[in-house]
Write a structure and sequence with these properties.
Its EC number is 2.3.-.-. The chain has 5 helices and 7 strands, in the order E-H-H-H-E-E-E-H-E-H-E-E. The chain is of the alpha+beta class. It has a single domain, classed as Gcn5-related N-acetyltransferase (GNAT) (Aminopeptidase). The radius of gyration is 16 Å and the shape is globular. It starts with a strand and ends in a 7-residue tail after the last strand.
Length: about 180
């Protein structure tokens, strides 16, 4: 089950977003309650995408147990080019069970759905990730995304030069199956 986060979700979010191993390849350091409260007042608290430049972060919850498994974020990058970007963060305690694939597939479906059906009508969605993040690269491939670029040592990332991979999928290529 996917839904936006609320203040009552902070402890559940801290279980994975507060971990250094989880944040190793992410563009932020481990978060604390104050960080999450600040983000909930901004982008993390958004319930819909209405304009270019916004992002929507949805928690992925287990229907069976009610536990927070992780979250998926969709960025609305360009209205003119109908472009978006997807990202995810999942608790390693729930890895290997298909939850990230299921949640990311649902978010891609939202991004690609026509506006009259409640979606954004995106043409293309990218995922940008640290080249060392093998699990995220494998997830991109399970989602039907193709690797389009490998930028070698292109950005200073957490104290060292890092490689960036870019994966993408077009609306007409996307399949929920």
């Amino acid at each position: 089950m996917l839904r936006p986060f609320g203040v009552d979700d902070i402890d559940a979010m801290l279980a994975y977003r507060g971990r250094a191993d989880v944040c190793r390849y992410l563009p932020f350091e481990p978060q604390d309650a104050a960080d999450l409260l600040q983000r909930l007042a901004g982008d993390y608290g958004r319930v819909a995408l209405t304009a270019e430049g916004q992002s929507l972060t949805l928690g992925a919850w287990s229907r069976a147990t009610g536990e927070l498994l992780g979250d998926v974020i969709l960025f609305f990058r360009s209205q003119v080019h109908r472009g978006g970007e997807i990202g995810w963060v999942f608790d390693p305690a729930h890895a290997g069970r298909g939850y990230a694939t299921e949640a990311a597939t649902a978010v891609l479906a939202l991004g690609f759905a026509r506006p009259e059906a409640g979606g954004l009508g995106l043409h293309r969605v990218e995922a940008r990730l640290d080249a060392r993040n093998d699990r995220s690269a494998a997830l991109c491939e399970r989602l039907g995304m193709r690797r389009e670029a490998h930028f070698v040592r292109n950005e200073w990332f957490k104290g060292e030069w890092g490689d960036l991979l870019v994966y993408a999928v077009l609306a007409e290529e996307f399949s929920r199956s």
